[in-house]
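Encode chain A's predicted structure.
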Amino acid sequence: MNEIVNDCGGRIKSEVQVEGSDKNHVTVSLSLYLKRLSASGPPIGWSTVEHQTELEVSFHYRPLLWGSQLKLQQLLNATLQLKRVAADSDGRLLLDFTTTTHFHGWFVTSHRGAPHVRSTVYPPHGLLTNMSLHLIWSQATWNSPVQSWRATSDYSLQDYSGNYTASLVACVAAPGLQYTPNAASDCIPQVPPVRLSIPVNFQHSAKPAALSYGLETHFVISNNLDSLLGPPENLQDYKGPYFPEETVVGHILWLPTHQLHSAYQLTVHRVYVCSGNADTAPTSCLRGSPGLGHTILLLDRDDPEISDDSYNDNSFEARFASEMDDIGKLAHFPGADGFIFKVAPLYSMNVGNQWYLQALYSIGPRSATRYTRSVDNGLPENASTVKPFLLEPSINVPHAKEVLAPGTFIAAAGVILLTACCLGGALCQSRRQPTSDVVAPLNSSLQSPNTGKQQVLLRAIPVTVWNDLASNEGTEV
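Encoded structure for chain A:
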């Protein structure tokens, strides 16, 4: 309209507001001239014919700006092109797309002239996520600029398919206005935003599960000795507390996917019972493990002499299932092995009611002739998981004793040393008794209260102190 009026000599004949409407009616008149030039014979030569007419145009418009010249609202439209559909490392949807405006201006994420509206992307109806929209890049021009956008879902979903809607705030520049670096303040935001459709067909493929290999063994404990006679695959863990008169029955089960029981045998070699340190569960019952407070070697198939068969004169009565004559039926299940022990000695150790079990086992061929593949005919031992079990906390044992601390052990060693020094003098006239009846548990790993470091106690060795050089009697400490 500026060019028609200012450059071409057009005239606005009338401009009135339509009654009951926000539109204006405008009539514009423009003079059109036509000159035809032709050649004639002498004496006329060249001749011209001129024509003039008036072109009158009427139209309606909604006023956009009021000023010294009329400005018309433009048709707000654009083209959207989807460039990439993907999922980020967290599984959230990524939509990369570009827009090209078909008006004199561009799209903005927000504008201070319309603070209540923002550009955004709406997910399909029923999709339980929101989308965040970011403007990546804009072409520096008002004339149909190309702009790059990225929309990201707030949550990770399995299926993102559906019809998304881009709601973009158009910002229109005045006709003839040149683009400047301060372009954001030169355009006027339009309400409502322009809505463009984004059809998406994308299912988020789940990451494949990491391939892991295992022996497919299970560690089950119960308080019923008859459980050793039943089918191993039907065993269930006992979750309740163990009372002083009860027996812990442990099972190591091998349940491979393929039935290999007829060719291989599972054997339990060692069994440990241990406690945690300062309410911390140990990662293993083996010495040096983090969180380990106290550990007892209940059974050792290869070297039974080093196992701890009792504590405070209470026997664990620990046995392998293969050592029990009444459990011979277990031999029919080569993929299982077990053990038993009584919990009564644990009640005499004042270290709490939470205990843990761990077993070392091996799986090897049932026939000895198949060991020829190994250099030393030995089998690697595998450690079971650490299985927790509870003692009944309401039972108070009157003779329960504190576990021997490292300082106490040093003091006891000093007493033994003093007693030995008395052998050469006459001071030792009477039979010496041990200064304390506290017996250190065998193969123990204890926590020092001062340093916080684990101390290893050696196995207790009987020492005989003689009262008289001429006497054959002595006191064992």
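Residues 2-72 form one domain.
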